[in-house]
Amino acid sequence: MRTTTSSPRDDDVTAARTTRADGFPGGPAAGPADGPAVRSRRASLPGDPQAAAAARRFVRATFADWAGRQLTGAEGLTDRLADEAELLVSELVTNAVVHAGTTVELRCRLDPEAGRDGGGAEPYRGRNGEPYEAPHRETAAATGAGADDASGPGIVIEVSDHHPTQPVRARAESAASENGGHGLQLISAVAESWGVTYRRAMKTVWFRLPVGGADGAGWPEPEFTLDHQLLQCELRAAELLAPAPRRAARPEPGTGRIDNGALSFLAEASDLLSAQLDADQVAALAAQLIVPRLAEWCAVWLYDGDSGAPGRGIAQAGDEQRLAGVWHTSESRIDALRTALEKQPPELPGGGASGSAPGVVPWPWPYEPGGYGPGGAALACPLVAGGRRLGTLLLGRGGLPHFPDEAVGLIEDLCRRVARAVATARAYSRQERISQVLQRRLLPRGRAQVPGVESAVVYEPREGAWAGGDFWDLFDAGDGRWCFALGDVCGSGPEAAAVTGLARPVLRLLARDGFGVAAVLDRLNKTMAREAADSVAAVAAAVAAAGAGAEAPVEIREEGEQARFLSLLYGEIVPYPGGSGGARCTLASAGHPLPLVLGTDGAVRVVAAPQMLLGVVEDAAYVSESFDLCPGETLLCVTDGVTERRSGRRLFDDEDGLATALAAGAGLGATALADHIRSTVHAFGPTPPDDDLALLVLQASGPGVS
Hints:
Bact_Sigma-Reg; phosphatase activity; SpoIIE family protein phosphatase
């Protein structure tokens, strides 16, 4: 079942329903230089925040390719047409990513004239290879209106997603949403014709833009409800970007500064702002984007709280804004501008219904005896995202009685993007602080110095991880014993960090109470197994209660929170007395990569047997093994981030890769050997490691070396 809607503008909308097989556009086939394979190009974009930028680049590259091939109709592909196509595609792709969340299919086609695809156009094909009619032609068949009704050459662009039950955002919905796009409202005003096709497995929105001659002749004027004078300012699409259309009796001085380039300006500004992960950097970048394009000077205030001032944009008592960024067309006047603005931060009164988007308001021109510029018009715009006031943006331009309405709409749209970028940067900063605090608490502040033994540690959390699931420790247990541990929690993120926070203190407590290696593992295993059993019992009780119709007595935890398993290599080392060099080492491996010893002759041997993971079986019994670490010998302990480092289908430890790397470091000291293993692991694959990486090196010194 599919539903097709179409409109030559946004006034006449019709619908029809028919039954048709599921399908999906296929790739172009080989063709002549001016054939269908050249005139029709498609791309598949992932459903992530980068899809809109990729779509804009694809459209721009497609236009350039057509113009370079001098195809029929390509002589009318002007920069203005490219700007409008990029804007409409960006809106539709963003809409598909946000509301459908699926892969987005993008197709661009150059029609030499209406009703003709250039001859022999390649068929649209579904996932099983079956052909089906192009969406814009289905619209024409179902409604009697489509792209073929237009006159002259044109560009047809289709954006498809795989969530057919999610409707396209309507005009009223997009206008009412603070953080939303403009969707079909923008398309209906700019495109010559457009339509929506609903299929069983996907939804397609298409639109057609007319291609005029090289001099722009033949471009139809859009049917706006705005005053005719505004259209003469070439602000057709920029006016639509404002949250509410404004009328003006005549073009105001300075409106010529805002032209069709504003469309790509907003798109590129979004890309630049979203790439910043620090709120102050967002403020500085926003000021430099505005100056000198929209204003002569700009300043950005931010609240220092994590979430900004609550409520309707009104700060709580004691909350003050901080001037985070100032910029002026003349850098010599920035200090004077900052001095004038810091005297009185902008305080905008709250108003409007809860959840409504605040707008730009006129602001008094700030004067300074030293002077940094003549008087003029100034605007203040609150930065609001997620219902919270994050700050205020203030800008001004000299020589104007007030900003033109077209510029105000553009500024409001840009300020919404700045606010969202500030909110994202603050969320990232909070996450980064949490990660740093967890890492400091989960790892030892330093490693103990063992007499007669040189040590080295490498610890690298996975890139982008909050806190690593790997941990290490080397501490003085008293009575001439030093204990070491290298562990890896099954899982990642905060749940793994919580297990790490339990295991390391328990190890230290048991070791300092005099328990041996095997006894420490036995008690830690029982602790973790009982906690896991309590979790399973709680889930079983909840399921039973739900089956009986009663309310679950406990909350069912996520799978990651129930995982309490731990692989651990734990041991103790006792240096030989009298400074003779060497030490007695006792250790056990519970589900962990086995430790290796590099002898003075360059041979590598395994010094432990594999045993059960901790936390799996409560009554598991662990045994330890002892050996002499002779002077010059080296003990290497690693986590699976080392042994399971991937390069294609190969693992680092395939064919004893770790032992080979260790043997290649014969003669190196502990620190140099640790760096050698680390660099070898990183060089094994073309991409950074996708797991935490930790290794511990203990090397017995010769006689007389402490």
